[in-house]
Amino acid sequence: MASHLPPKPTPQHSTATAGGMAEAEHPRPSGLMRWLLTTNHKEIGSLYLIFSLTMFFIGGIFALVVRAELFQPGLQLVRPEFFNQMTTMHGLIMVFGAIMPAFVGLANWMVPLQIGAPDMALPRLNNFSFWLLPVAFTLLLSTLLMPGGGPNFGWTFYAPLSTTYAPPSTTFFILSLHIAGISSILGAINIIATILNLRAPGMRMMDMPLFVWTWLITAFLLIAVMPVLAGVITMMLMDINFGTSFFNAAGGGDPVLFQHLFWFFGHPEVYIMILPAFGIVSAIIPTFCRKRLFGYASMVYATAAIAILSFLVWAHHMFVVGLPLVAELFFMYTTMLIAVPTGVKVFNWVATMFRGSISFEPPMLFALAFVVQFTVGGFSGLMLAISPADFQYHDTYFVVAHFHYVLVPGALFAILAGAYYWLPKWTGHYPHLRLSQWHFWLSVIGVNLTFFPMHFAGLAGMPRRIPDYALQFADFNLASSLGAILFGASQLLFVLVIIKCVRGGEKAPARAWEGAEDLEWSVPSPAPLHTFETPPEFHPHQH
Amino acid sequence: MSGGSYYVPESSKWPILASLALGLMMIGTGMVLVYGASGMPVMALGLLGVLAVMALWFRDVVIESRGGLYDDQMDRSFRWGMGWFIFSEVMFFAAFFGALFYVRTFALPWLDGEGAKGVAALLWPDFTASWPLLNPPDPSISGPRETFSPWHLPLVNTLILVSSSITLTIAHEGLKEGVRASTRFWLTVTVLLGLCFITIQGVEYYEAYAHYGITLQAGIYGATFFLLTGFHGLHVIIGTIILAVMLVRVFRGHFTADSHFGFEAAAWYWHFVDVVWIGLFLFVYVF
Where in the cell is it found (chain B) (predicted)? Predict the structure, then answer.
């Protein structure tokens, strides 16, 4: 494989110029204090990424507990009560602790570099946003040790399971989610202010790299829906502790109200976890095809269209709850509409590759796998969107297969692609090629072995969130569990790649990939602590 | 940070302390709710920590601002920041209004047997939907005895808040035109009006519990009533504190005619709180 890759640009060949050098520095705190007190977007970005990776492994261990129990029919390893806590915590940790902070970390590192800004718009607030996360997730994880155990009602925490019938630790779960929500809102405000206000002179909105565009729209979604989550968990808190009747029909409330409020947050939340992934892939594919991105403007409009539609589809998660017929139809059609802008994106990526000089460096491998596998997840989403069909699929492993395809070989692969793409900029070294390729191929095999059989198990009727199952599902589950072990273990390779890359390796020039054109490639690799202290000259090119 | 125009602050200890204090406050709150009053000291300590760090952090910002470290671009960052923060608050209240409308439009009529969802009526066949809901479906939950007339205390409070927005605008005009005496006077009036509102709301809460039977436990009417008015009242308290800080700053000679975003941000927040109240007055009290 390696021999087919084109030579990497060497420092001598690099035409990039240093965009900014560190000035003589003020004395800064050293050691631990440096990381606790930092206001630097690169350091905070690294903190986010390290935090996210840590949470990824914790959530991954929970997933492996689940898969180990499901390895064969019957109850082997854990009690059902603990199994429920594992599925719940796996979902919560991965969504709020791994995927979202990873994208925020990438935004912290790359958005200022891509728009030629000296830092984030509000650097101290940025530090606050990060340090809320370890506090929130320490509190969340501690609920596992509390009397009655941790959250056991699924990551969607439907009332009344999460109110009337919930363990006492639910109050702490709610409060920890409040902290994580504050972090998200403040982080999103910061990103919007940075993008709208700190672009290099001459960079118009339609000159921004797509990662910046997708993050701008993601930040808008975050600010719009995280407060709704805060609202609904506050109502839960009151139902649990103050005897209110929001989700209790006996007092005139409605458990279905919980689902409406939750999914009004929850569906845009799904796009919060995928739009930045679109941005990363839209940066990587043109670079390794040595072509401009096909249909830049349509990518921007498609992203905006997906964001707007995301507010109009939430009840497709609730088709079987007993919605009026008109609601079933409305939400079915709006959901299907989302396939249109998403299709625009996929076709644009493919068109970008058409007649390009493609090479298959690790970031490109992950980006290509993203396009294919995310599309698989998109198609199963279309199947689920058909309301009458969903009556069959609902709450089966088909749903589990669907959202894992968009989140793992989708969002997570895009994050990995972004990490491989920008590691040379962060560390000054290329990631180890052979190890990266092993990581990629083992991940692809592992992820598909884990999640593809779930489609069949689900269509055959295996319900989700159960620790035991009927015998006819045994083979599918065996494959899934083996795949999960393979996938989980191969992520250790990623850690190895990162450690090796930080410590040394082939030196990367400023423009680490020959087809890369955005502003981040005009600063040295590794990027000095302070970049673009004077705004760079930006020359808009024709999209 | 020589060379660049944009102010990037040096490392700061406030964010990490704020995180820890907020975490302590949340843990304390959880302890109070789950284990009882023994968690009170932790919660109080956390709250004090949050307030102290906020005061010190904003103090740093004020000092930097008065030291001339902020340029127009920084000013725009603050404006975007505050604007989007208020948008997030709008969405927070939107969730509560959405819950209110959902219950009134869908949940209660369905419980009464209306439409295709009428099977829900099998649970409590004697239930009759109405708003305000005086008789919740399950007889074990007692609803409010009666509800407030909107044309007494709520109307007074509406007039107070609307006037306070006007007095605040007059104070702002004074600041822009360099008439400090006017700013001092009208801002003081605004803060006093805020205090009046809070007091009257307190009286209404007392009335609710003592005479009207409107409690948190009084079915969905009491729940939505206290959710909406409670969080609004909390925002009025916060807004009043912010305006009081601005009043102190005005008396100390802070702000200039063309640079006073701290004041403007406080005013934005206050007008937002005012607008939310209009929605509350209409949909919680009148209709």
Answer: Cell membrane; Membrane
